[in-house]
Specification:
By secondary structure, the protein is mainly beta. The chain has one domain. It is 6% helix and 29% strand. The chain contains one helix and eight strands, in the order αββββββββ. A five-stranded antiparallel β-sheet has the order 6-5-4-7-8, with no helix packed on it. The longest helix has 10 residues. The protein is globular, with a radius of gyration of 19 Å. The N and C termini lie far apart (56 Å). The relative contact order is 0.17.
């Protein structure tokens, strides 16, 4: 037996917890159940946030106005995942992208599907593809896919990345 101190050990751990959505997130998830994306607008700077925020991070004021947005958007930046990792749900390769959903001022991180990852590009126009069974989670948007519209220029979204 060693006299060295134990500094690390591997053991199974289980954590049970309950997460309760606040009122803004609960409203957002209720709209998801209807197949709608709804953001919140700042009354001062007029920015629309998706997912919605209860207060504008720039102005510090409460957001109260709900705004239906999308379902189309623009890829502002992306990453292609080519290597597997523990706990991965999707089979590589696949793309994660920041999608600036039409009518919003902040990009939403999501998966881009139904598209060869080598065809991914900034400015690509995409649309939300909904799951057959909607649940109160952003995963009800299965992914975004190319919508056939022409790409937009970097200048049209560069202030939002």
């Amino acid at each position: 037996m060693s006299d060295d101190p134990v500094t690390r050990f591997k053991a199974p751990v289980r954590l049970d917890y309950t997460v309760t959505a606040g009122s803004v997130t609960a409203d957002f998830l209720r709209e998801i159940l209807k197949g709608r994306l709804v953001g919140r607008r700042c009354p001062d700077c007029r920015c629309v946030y998706l997912p919605p925020r209860s207060a504008c991070p720039t102005c510090g004021v409460i957001t109260t106005e709900q705004i239906e947005v999308g379902p189309n958007g623009t890829v502002t930046t992306f990453s292609v995942i080519r290597f597997p990792f523990e706990g991965q749900v999707l089979e590589p390769p696949y793309a994660c992208a920041h999608v600036l959903v039409d009518g919003t001022d902040t990009p939403l991180l999501h998966i881009v599907g139904n598209c060869d990852v080598d065809d991914m590009r900034m400015g690509m126009r995409v649309r939300a593809v909904w799951a057959e069974e909607l649940k109160p989670t952003l995963a009800s948007v299965r992914y975004f896919e190319p919508n056939g519209e022409p790409d937009v220029t970097y200048d049209s979204f560069s202030g939002h990345v």
